[in-house]
Design goal:
Number of strands: 22
Helix content: 25-40%
Largest sheet: 6 strands, mixed
Structural class: alpha/beta
CATH class of the largest domain: Alpha Beta
CATH superfamily of the largest domain: P-loop containing nucleotide triphosphate hydrolases
Strand order of the largest sheet: 6-9-10-3-11-12
Radius of gyration: 25 Å
Shape: globular
Strand content: 25-35%
CATH topology of the largest domain: Rossmann fold
Amino acid sequence: MTMSPRLEMSRITKAFGGAPAIADGNLILNAGEVHALMGANGAGKSTMMNVLGGVIAKDSGTITIDGRSVELGTAKRAAALGIAFVHQELTTMPTLSVAENIFIGAFPKRGPFIDRRKMIADAKALLERVGCNVDPLALVESLSTGDRQLVEIARAVRAAPSIIIFDEPTSSLSGPEREKLFAVIGKLRANGAAIVFISHFLDEVFRVCDRITVMRNGGTVGSYRTTETDMHTIVTQMLGSVAASERVRLPITAMTSPSLSARGISSGVLVDNVSLEMRPGEIVGLWGLLGSGRTELVRALMGLDPLSAGTLEVIDTTGHLKETRPEELRRKTGLVTEDRRKEGVVLPFTIAENIALPNIGSLSNAFGFIDRKREQDLARRLSAELGVKSTSVRQTAGTLSGGNQQKVVFAKWLPMKPQFFILDEPTRGLDTGAKAEILKLTVQLAEEGASILFISSELDELMRVADRYLVVNRGRITHQLPGSASHEELMQAVSGQQNVKGAA
């Protein structure tokens, strides 16, 4: 007699504002297995898990648990059906104790009162179960990020759920903490739990997971037994075959001296002993799967996160490299972050006001006030140069399309004529036409002499503009390849199957 799957999600769809996030999502999860759900950024895996966790409601499709059709729709309903969700973003309450966080919403009672003695004893037992030895009475704000993650996991397993979703559970954990987590997952599997494991670390997936389901562009494209596939196949399924798109510019080999040299940069738990160089007029493509440490490296270079080791050198007016601090590098850099709506533009501000923000000094009059005429003249000129589509420069940024918002982000840096541009996922969420325009603008900036670090998880975009590729994995640059590298060579590098000698 064949046992029914613990969970089956079939033909799930979900759209936001008419844009489909899931077009055809399918997942079969068995009891006593660890099942990886993988996909590049925007593939739909997070939306699928938010549907399963009751965070959002599906538009169509069916969900069955132990052979019975169910409707979720709320986190409370999902929890009642035995589904627990360990989110990537920490949801603990910092001013409460560890024990209070574990039992929030389900405190043990003695009559009408909370039974604090039982709460602390039970919390201690749950913490031991997940390999965390913190004091149940300690405030969560006093814990390391790794310990906070383990407290989240202790809370998730409190009610002995039959289905557990781990969303990037190791992203904040040290090596020993990861080992503890893998041991916990092994015990949960042995006790019959069905586990969804979302991770961009391929080595982890192949180590702890029994099967892998891959999503791409909102649909499920394949499911594999871990023992019957390999990393290269999974990466190819995640990213698809890169079409032979015409390059915006043929790759160049920059012969000039470096304009920037980073040596042995380390920061936080992810960025580990990174060295790289950038040259005038060169576009360096930094490629790695989401969670590989790309954004953390950018934050370290810009001084947004502190360096724990390493040196930075930037070319000075005499043409020589001179040691500098990240804060000083930031003044010479146009930074396009991966989240334009939160960090790139101020949505309630007008186009003109956004462009003026880093240029207030040059736009101020003798009395220290912004000259509005000069502000708007500058905004009109740059909007025309970059083709920003708007009713006027007085239109608020929040009402623009994603592509036009991104052009405003670029526009605000241009008056400063920065030596460097760091572009972190600059085309994320844009349509095909807007993406092409951003790529052309990137090449134009390089041809005007800027040194550009272009970060993307979309290989086809990098292959249209990059002069050189740096492959990053777990916060380290593992490979360097020339701009002429093939799709196959790049795929092998990111999946760790080719020993390409890395260099700055």
